[in-house]
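Predict structure. Chain length: 112.
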Amino acid sequence: MSTHRGFPGLDRSRSRPGRVTGRLPIKSAATVSVAVCVAVLAFVYVAQTTILRDLTAKVTSAREALTEKEDVNQSLQFRIDQALSLERVSRVARQQLGMVEPEVIYYVRLHP
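Prediction complete.
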């Protein structure tokens, strides 16, 4: 029979009933394992929920910014169309540049 640290009668290979050996019983080990797994899963769930909420807020913010930019783009396109319209070009030519509409239009025919 082997002794443990000089204590006679303490057998490392066998345990006596009612004696604590430093090992958890199988049911306790399984319970602890399940509890740890549940805790890890709960942590992962909370982390993913938080990440999902953050991403949803970012998507909403990006959509709002996109809508604003599309409105500005539409307004600028309207101003470009107005600036390049033939009526405006004709008016600017007459009023600011002093041009006049021709009274007679001559056509020149080119021979092919």
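Summary: Helices lie at 26-83, 86-95.
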